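Notebook B, p. 112. Complex prediction, attempt 2.
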Amino acid sequence: MSESTPPPSSNMPTPRSNWKNWIGVMPFFLFAIMFIFLPSVRLFIGSFTNEEGHFTLDNVRQLFTQQYIINSYLLSIRISATTALGGGILGFLLAYSVTVGGLPKALRSALITFSGVASNFAGVPLAFAFVATLGRTGFVTTMLKDVFGLNLYDAGFNLYSFLGLSLTYMYFQFPLMVLVMAPALDGLKREWREAAENLGATSIQYWLRIALPILLPSILGAMILLFGNAFGAYATAYALTGGRLPIITIQIGAQVRGDVLHNPNLGNAMAMGMVIIMAISLAGYSWLQGKTERWLR
Amino acid sequence: MKSFARLRNFPFWSWLWFVLGVLYFVLPLFATLEFSLGMERDVISLKAYQRAFADPKFWQTFGYSVFLAAMTIIVSIILIVPTAYWIRLRLPEARRIVEFITLLPFVIPAIILVFGLIRVYSTPFHIPFTNIYLGQPLTNFKFGTIFLIIGGYMVLGLPYMYRSVDTGMRTVDVRTLTEAAQSLGANWFVVIVRVILPNIRTALLSGSLLTFAIVVGEVVLASFLGVQAFGPYLFLLGQHRAYEPAALTFTTFLLTWASMGIIQLVTGGQGQTAGAH
């Protein structure tokens, strides 16, 4: 055997030990198969199956032709885009204020901690908190009425509407933006600003022509992340509106509870459609994140 | 001169955004607190909290959620720590695929996950290409449901737990520690339990607390799988009571706060954005 010669001996054992090494990660793959792949594959196959169990494209076709399904997707997309934009802007400004905006350092860690809490504060408790705030007898509603004589509900506001749900979603949206953007803003080098100022740039010129272009992929990526974050939300909307706003997750929830569409496989197709949209947004996020890392490290 | 002028400049806009943000954070919490203290007319009282905590169903469901969270955390650690360790030490080529899998829960929202789980496990397990069916569907008996929900919660917590553990292992020299322990005669089990685990305890703690925060108030998996957990209880309570849910909401918030606060303390403020740093 040529075991003694260095190059083959370093090559020889690798394939065999490689194969054995994969056994070490088998439990993890088994877990992933049972709880991630099987459920996804089942939904995927179901999307292309008719009630007799044969292959069909009919379910997928209905996604694009049934008006109420299209409307649900559009409503979900609208609400996710609105809160991604609103939460993104507010979150960015907040992240800006505690990183390069000149606020005391102590406020920064306080804000980051609070953002960590708030971005995880969703679902039923969040819905209740907003009822206590902006509901018909909520704290802010009452205060506006008593102090400013402004009756929100007479003015057309309703917590259980598109605007109300958006304001509620914002509570976990903008803290996520803070968490994602703060490190990116930290990456802005002081030298860039100084160089710009030495060349006579004003603060606005610096932001518009240097800082924002560098941050842009990062900002867009973070907003896409927020989009996905809102798109998948179910419990908050259900607890707040009780299903009156037919966003896509609520429709799917109704389908799981009882076969309201009288076609279980159409439910599968709706779920698949959601996963595809989520996957596209996550891919967009990681692609844009990669583009930023060149500058900000 | 310019920098001198800037020093004297009060960062007005920064403060404005900051105050706006803080108001957004605080107002709903304050409103909830204020409402929960107003159960008795015209006085501030803790009556809503007394009532809420006096309900045995609260303790049952809450205790059950804590149990589920603990089980989720333990099984996650047992599954993820050896996997991450093995990848680092012996199987770097598996890194990409495993990291990809740990990101999948971001693409599959809880409602879709539970939908898929019910579709797969509410029928008896069918061995492909045969007519053999195994036993009862998992959703039909209690142990099966617990098995399913813990698996589901592990999926929801997977990105956070894996990332924490992996970051923790990056900061300690796993290879040297392993070689040192092995040269002293330790086997794999001893290496992981007595050498690796203590060295990544900070990472484990932050991963566990995040998982705890996710699981304790979780409502989607619990209600669709019919598990009597805290989330569905709070939701039902909200249907026919006003003050008690507010009290429990505020309590939940404090719990989340405590979890995140501890994470920030032990990780020095980097717990949430491990990937960005």
